[in-house]
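Q: What would this chain look like folded?
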Amino acid sequence: MTIIGRKYQMVIDQHSRRKLGLRPGWVAIQTVVGDHLEVRFLPPVHDRSLAGSLKAYARRPVVREDEAKRRAWEREVESRWAER
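A: My prediction, written as C-alpha cells:
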C-alpha cells in the first residue's frame, strides 16, 4: 500500500520496480479507467552507441567515422604534397 503525499506523489514499491525493470528516467503514462488509475511505463531513449552491434552481419569491417575522416585527410594532404 502506498500513501499519496502532499504534492500528490506516490512511491512505487521496490518489488514492483524490480519486477517491471523500472529505472530512473522512465516515463509514466497515466490513464483514468473507470474508477482507477492505469499507469504504463516507457523506457527513455537510449544514448548508448550501437556501433558494432551488426558487426557479425557486416561484409566488411566496421570503421569508426572519426578514424576514416582522419585517414582520408592524411591521403589528401599526401596527394597535394606529391603534386608540388
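The mean pLDDT is 86.
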